[in-house]
Structure prediction request, 351 residues.
Amino acid sequence: MIEGIVTSLKILVIGMGYRGSKSIIIKLIIVKEQRVDGSSAFSKNGCCKVYSSRRESRFLKNKSFYSDFYILTVNSSFIKNNNLIKSQIRSLHNKSDLNPWFVTGLIDAEWCFHLGLTANDKYKQNYQVTLKFSMSLHEKDKDLLIKLKNYFGVGSIVNHGPTTLQYRITSIKDISTLISHCNNFPLTSQKRIDYELFKKAYNLIIDKLHLTNDGFKEILSIRASMNLGLTDKLALANPKILAIEKPIIKDLKVQDPNWISGFTTGDGCFHVTLAKSPFTKTGYRVALRFQLAQHNRDIKLMKSLITYLGCGRVEENLKTSMSYFVINKFSDIIDIVIPFFDKYPIHGVNH
Prediction:
């Protein structure tokens, strides 16, 4: 039987189960949501989302892939291009079958950089400053989280809700591993702005400047530029603090095909759309659709995928501030999309 042909509508309804959904379809409108629910929805026109059932293909590492690995650091306590450090990093990577660029793509799609400030009079500035790097997935994606933990060799996996797990790195010492990775395999989306702010805070903490008045004010300015900014309590206590100017990131482009696989693992969707049709024997017309969703601030990145893959288009939704890279031409999916992900496989239940 040729894969991709719908032979039973009953299978589509009963056999869906959890697929690590990032979105649901209601009346052909894609609604972005947290990738922890896994539910699917049928609209009145018979539309549903399924994922490829093709057998898993295994990525074969190029034996010379790490031969040119070069450690970049953000702290003088490390030595650039140190052979011992390179050996240790290679050892950590070899415990996981994840490609470094795949990991970066997943970071661009799913991961969060957090700078925390907790009131505590035991600290010099009366606040404890913490950093956290985290990713939350449904518990059925536990194997992927374990692979990530093995890749970095640090961090922990904890319960983060009734059916959700979170992989997190919170130790300042361990975060240096993350910093080294992101310096060598840099983020490709606008999330790199958040990373640069996160790294700036990391350097202040490593140098213990956050314990000084000026350093703590800089921490507050960084926090004001990240995520939701300062809390009301922090803003009220520090009315003169202004958000630090965000770095401008230009010319972001895909540097490796494995990045697309990692990004798709986090933000990609594969759809099968069923629409009533009087011109088919089954009474339904079947359409395939591959989609990546991102905030409009990354629309240039979405458009660059058209050139990189040689197919697709970008749809922009101004109302939701979202842009979508879409491939729904059957020949493109058969000739480009499926062979691409066979060669550079998706991991986790999205596979």
Remarks:
- Confidence is low (pLDDT under 50) at residues 1-81, 85-94.
- The two ends are 20 Å apart (CA to CA).
